[in-house]
């Protein structure tokens, strides 16, 4: 199960390294090759999804990825249209930082029967958008105001409310291509205060920054934009090393 796997991986390696694949930005043949690179260079999971799905190939991409990638493929959906049974699990997101009823509950209602039929593992996830220095697709598409980046208390209260509502995971997202990622102070504050595993993503552009987010207390660090178009082995491996900060090779 993905949830237990995530907790175990974070405990053993420091944090899990997740690659975000936008199903609109790769072709199935390329996804087959990417799966091999992710598998070889130490990605712990793939998140598959986007704010606005333009194509209808999410099934094909999930299928293609799993030809070579043997770790979890998890749907990170922008809407109810992004459910595919080809994946292993689904982040059942509720946009708790917003007050848009559509993304708090309506998309979830539309998706529920489909999700039940899919047999996917469902992870109830409190999804928070955090101000990032620019208008991101996630902000625009969600019609919501992000949490101010320098107000960890607001994020902490949201995360605790999510826990009391029964959610199992917090996703703190500055949005894809964010100018500045979520701060370490906010990550650490939320993880401690809510006592839930925290996934962090959005605008993390280099391994050093990724390592800092991992050490701040993130259970998983998500890297998307910066890898797109250059899914090269050496870049992937340096992100993996930085995020797996507990898992360093022993010195002789
Ligand atoms: C966005 O958290 C993800 O939802 C990843 O963001 O594409 O900026 O890495 P990037």
Protein architecture, described:
42% of the residues lie in helices and 17% in strands. The longest helix has 18 residues. It is of the alpha/beta class and 252 residues long. The protein has one domain: FMN-linked oxidoreductases (TIM Barrel). The protein is built from nine helices and eight strands. The chain is globular. The structure holds SN-glycerol-1-phosphate. SN-glycerol-1-phosphate binds next to β8.
Compute the number of strand runs. Answer: 8
Looking at the overall shape, the CATH architecture is Alpha-Beta Barrel
Number of helical stretches of at least 4 residues? 9
CATH domain class name: Alpha Beta
User: Going by CATH, what is the homologous superfamily?
Assistant: FMN-linked oxidoreductases
Shape: globular
**Helical percentage:** 40-55%
Bound molecules: SN-glycerol-1-phosphate
What average pLDDT do the residues reach? 94
Sheet with the most strands: spatial strand order = 1-2-3-4-5-6-7-8
For this structure, the CATH topology is TIM Barrel
List the helices and strands in order.
HEHEHEEHEHHEHEHEH
Describe the structure concisely.
This protein has 252 residues and is an alpha/beta fold.
Set down the secondary structure blueprint.
Layout: H1 2-13, E1 16-21, H2 28-41, E2 45-48, H3 58-68, E3 73-75, E4 89-95, H4 101-118, E5 121-129, H5 137-142, H6 152-164, E6 169-173, H7 184-194, E7 198-201, H8 207-215, E8 220-223, H9 233-243
Helix pairs in contact: 2-3, 2-9, 6-7, 8-9
This protein binds SN-glycerol-1-phosphate.
SN-glycerol-1-phosphate binds at residues 20, 173, 176-178, 201-204, 222-226.
